[in-house]
Amino acid sequence: MRNCHLRDAAALAQFWAWLEEEIHKDVKLTEVEVADKLLEFRSKQSGFMDTSFDTISGSGANGAIIHYKPEPESCSIVEANKLFLLDSGAQYVDGTTDITRTVHFTEPTAREKDCFTRVLKGHIAIDQAVFPENTPGFVLDAFARSSLWKTGLDYRHGTGHGVGAALNVHEGPQSISFRYGNLTPLQKGMIVSNEPGYYEDHAFGIRIENLLSVKEVDTPNRFGGIEYLGFEKLTFTPIQAKLIDLTLLSAEEITWLNDYHSQVWEKVRIRPDPIINPSFFVLYLLLIHICNIVLFLLSTLIILISR
Ligand SMILES: [Mn+2]
């Protein structure tokens, strides 16, 4: 499961770099064309089988429709001056991915930044949550909404659903939702999505989604003699910095973001492009090998001379 997310991240890195370049070249792409291109990048990754659900690719106001499904005949162009929400995932032989990122290609408005930052604060709060064993997911749901609630905003969907490993992308029994009827405790090894959002009708949609795996956390105390649990991230794709209003983030949240981005860089940059890079990668290893031989010969020479 961990590994398929890194291959997925490599495909997403290629995709986002491609999309940004096309839009800055003023190429007009529809929401469906963009989703098709993402599928093309993903399908080159090893173990790829299929998408894990229909891609939600929404520019501007379409992003505010939570289960929007763009159709080739009727969908919109991905506009440079609007927020673009992309929720997609894949099935690999070794796991299932589900990720949402929201980006802007030019300058976001103060309103968009304010809302995006509040969604991000909720995302970080879930990611960093530590809770006693036997806690049902609904207990955590308010953590994700707290920053939005403070300005009278909210979203009309759950914060997280269970995810199967090379199985259903929506797979219970666990969830993180305001629907407090689900009393299933979050248990070690369970996978859940962390996807708070905010949707402004006829304007824009925002969602930031990573998959998390429940793990035991080493707390300084163990009140009640029980285990305390938290989350490990599975998804490694950058979060667009220009959408963040830094004045709304705490020092800990900024550190979280910087740490996450260094992890993305460390984990994803070393993954060779399956189509172009194997030769580069071999060349790179060969160069390092040659450098080592040269260094060895030089140091031998220096030792011999110094005698
Ligand atoms: Mn999801």
Automatic annotation (TrEMBL):
Pfam families assigned: Peptidase_M24 (PF00557), Peptidase_M24_C (PF16188)
Domain Peptidase M24 C-terminal: 227-268
Record's keyword terms, sorted: Hydrolase, Manganese, Membrane, Metal-binding, Transmembrane, Transmembrane helix
A GO MF term: metalloaminopeptidase activity
Keyword Metal-binding attributed: yes
Matches recorded under Gene3D superfamilies: Creatinase/methionine aminopeptidase superfamily
DNA damage listed as a keyword: no
Essential cofactor(s): Mn(2+)
Stretches that traverse the bilayer: 281-305
Domain annotation Peptidase M24: ranges: 1-216
InterPro entries: Creatinase/aminopeptidase-like, Pept_M24, Pept_M24B, Peptidase_M24_C, X-Pro_aminopeptidase_P
Protein name stated in the entry: Uncharacterized protein
Organism of this sequence: Cannabis sativa (Hemp)
